[in-house]
Amino acid sequence: MNIFDVAGREVAKLVDNELTPGVYEYAFNGSGLSSGVYFYRLETGFFTETKRMVLVK
Length: 57
What we know:
single chain, 57 residues, mainly beta, four-stranded antiparallel sheet, 0% helix
């Protein structure tokens, strides 16, 4: 899972390996980022989804 700013630059990478099917939970520490809108992308072999999130400090 990758996190991008509104300009499309990757600002964080939470997971960079293949996982077995199941339920996972990850904590995102945005302390080094400014408040604003970011996007996260989840990619699998057959599926890609991008969602918006708002970071408020």
